[in-house]
Amino acid sequence: MSSLFIKGTAMGVSMEDWLNNPEYLSSTLLVIMQNWYAANYNTDGTYRKDLSATCRKQYGEIKQALIALENDMHNLSIIYHQLLNVKNTTLEAGLKDLYFSNLTESYFTNIRSIYDHISCFPRIVLNEKDLEDKAAKTTSFNELLGFCDPKNTVKRQKAEKIYSENLLNSIEKSKADFENVKKIRDAIIHHGKEPVVSNSEGNILFRIPIHVGNYNSNNILPDILGFGDKEYPLMDYLQSVTIALFKNMECIGNCIGYEYIGREPSGLQYLYALIGICIKDFVNFVFPEGKRCLLNPNS
Q1: N or C end of the chain, less CB within 10 A?
Q2: Domain residue limits, the chain
Q3: pTM for the predicted model, two decimal places
């Protein structure tokens, strides 16, 4: 195997490896959340201190969202690895297209889920009283965006009572990227649309027709690559939405971290990163210019 570990989370990663080593999938948000977990939970999953029923319920939801985040980040690396392997196999063309289509559906579903997990994490900066606020109980990114929208004065004012303006603005800035993923995932999951993938001279192209069963109908994919084409290079498209996801995670993670460290005496004890046999290829995919270009060395 190319790695000693099938998949997992590494604790105590050096800053050099966290910033530069492609064997580690790094994320400021993941570091903040893992340090929050270590400060509040023992290794057996029990609480380190007595908490009210409100805190236990909210912390339980945050804990589950963290576990799910790590699983879905790993899933993205695994699906990407599968895509690479399918591309390089000698399978007949029809099977390749079916595999690409199915894996593409799974990829967008996982990205959409990651955004939803993120919606729970701002709660770690709140006190017990604020945890009771409706704006703190969001479990979907779409719902959280509703409280960040400056055009919705009533909801925004409620959110500003418990969250900083910087944090709310960082979430609001991710809206366009999230809406692109939401549109694609909803088309697949809720409206029965199907990614149509074709392999043309080694180039993997895909689109999602507006009309189910009519593969010649117009493409509903957001034109995030600026091509204006009916078909898009699959790997370039996936790379674009993935880089956008990780940039948003960094921005939100830095804002949460700034507030969390300010109120948490223990601060950040360790750097964390995901590791595994699929991670290196995925890191090179997400950080084509190196991890330093995206990660904040002061996080």
Answers
A1: N
A2: 51-266
A3: 0.93
